Amino acid sequence: MSYAPVAFDAYCRRIGFDGPLTPTLDTLAQLIERHAATIAFENIDVLAGRVPRLDLASLQQKIVQGRRGGYCFEQNSFLLAALKQLGFTAVGLEARVRAGVPADVITPRTHMALRITLDGGDYLADVAFGGLAPTTPLQLAGNGTQRDAHGAYRFVDVGADRLLQCETHEGWTDCYRIHTSEPQAIDYEMANWFVATNPKAMLRHNLLVARSVLGGRLTLFNNKLSLRKSTAQPEETTLGTRAEFADTLADAFGLQIDAGDLDAVMAVIDDKAGLARSPES
Which residues are catalytic, by number? Predict the structure, then answer.
């Protein structure tokens, strides 16, 4: 992956950022907040049978010019390139997803996040972990509760790793377990290919779209649209028609989706509906 140049004028217009582009904690916090509020997590390329490309030119074309989103390898790769170009000391991290996974199941390292070093301290930056992504930098060494605009997070030591947890209406929920090693670009390429092509990968068979909105985190998981406000029970709506999906993706998530990609979304939704109707399910 290449780390320069990022077209900052276009990126800042895309996310509505007009602050100073200096390598400070305040700039980092503002970039994460604006990015999370504008660019949705989404896996529609994968549902359409495509492996997302991680080179910077492709990421800029999709995320900035194409007004699309992406999943962790896309969005955090792009953010890493942007931060490095601004002069931040930033590296990629790899993690094992733990959200929704039984405690005895070992998961692969299929999540990408970032470590930013500022004034001798390390911060986690992550704009692409679905509906649970923090919308502010988190101190990686911190052991207490840390808050963003929508809720609370904390880190727990698990051996040499750090486990990120988020407080939801169900209590403290595991997000992902961060490894201390620094991966290489080829490690992300391998994980990206695995997530996009493995027939057992969750994102191959489920629609997941999420972004930060005023007052909470908006998430579309298959046909369930939910708004999570801190630890309150999420507000949930069920989508049914193709028009409802098209309008929600465009209006609620700001995504420009063509007819072919909407076909891929509806194929997944129709498949889920068929399984629900099956007497064997």
Answer: 72, 111, 126
Backbone angles phi, psi at 210, to 5 degrees: -155, 150
Q: At 15, which CATH number?
A: 3.30.2140.20
Tens digits of residue pLDDT in 22-42: 999 999 999 999 999 999 999
Rounded distance, CA 25 to CA 124, Å?
12
Q: What are the Cα distances from residue 118, in Å, to 28, 88, 211?
A: 10, 8, 26
CB 14 within 8 A of CB 39: yes
Per-residue model confidence as pLDDT tens digits over 104-144 = 899 999 999 999 999 889 999 999 999 999 999 999 998 89
> How long a stretch of residues is the chain?
281
Q: Which domain holds residue 32?
A: 8-275
Task: Give me 144's structure tokens.
Answer: 């207490």
